[in-house]
């Protein structure tokens, strides 16, 4: 769908320069999705893997973040192998609903209530990023925290349209449950993509 060089705004790698590769296509259907234009893959052009890597190499950063849409709709072995061959660290942001593919340095798993994750994702997740939109999302987050590996980083992140309302609840929750950490969409505060 698009590719751009910016700072990673959220999660464990927040603040790092990164080349974002956003793949078109998603059938998860989150009602609060902020990239609904990604859902229909047919509306977006196709690019060769070589041209994607070439685009990434135009910038000095060597972190590539594959996002979507839902990037695991596609087998990502070839794209990630090519990025690694070119010297990139590879990170993914996924809802985990499709079988796991690709060669990754960091896997951000962000489960959604609207479609169940594929079981592959739990052993592969380095970071569980739970979006908090309403109070029932705390329980949903805990249900996934019980399934990821013990060294998986546990993050709670307020959904942007509700962040003013949910932030105080998340702060209190993390103070009571310190295995969790806060993740904020800092790129939105910085007004960058
Ligand atoms: S999984 Fe991501 S891209 Fe898909 S609908 Fe949900 S927020 Fe949007």
From TrEMBL:
| Catalysed conversion reaction | 6-carboxy-5,6,7,8-tetrahydropterin + H(+) = 7-carboxy-7-carbaguanine + NH4(+)
Question: According to the UniProt entry, what is the EC number of this protein?
Answer: 4.3.99.3
Pathway it works in:
Purine metabolism; 7-cyano-7-deazaguanine biosynthesis
Q: Quote the Gene3D superfamilies the UniProt record gives.
A: Aldolase class I
- Regions that span the bilayer: none
* Binding locations of substrate: 7-9, 22, 67, 193
Q: Where does S-adenosyl-L-methionine bind?
A: 32-34, 69, 110-112
Query: Domain Radical SAM core, which positions?
Result: 13-193
Q: Which InterPro entries match?
A: 7-CO-7-deazaguanine_synth-like, Aldolase_TIM, rSAM, rSAM_sf
For this chain, the family text in UniProt reads: Belongs to the radical SAM superfamily. 7-carboxy-7-deazaguanine synthase family.
Q: Which HAMAP family does the UniProt entry name for this protein?
A: QueE
UniProt-listed PANTHER family: 7-CARBOXY-7-DEAZAGUANINE SYNTHASE (PTHR42836)
Q: What is this protein called?
A: 7-carboxy-7-deazaguanine synthase
Species name: Dyadobacter flavalbus
* Lineage of the organism: Bacteria, Pseudomonadati, Bacteroidota, Cytophagia, Cytophagales
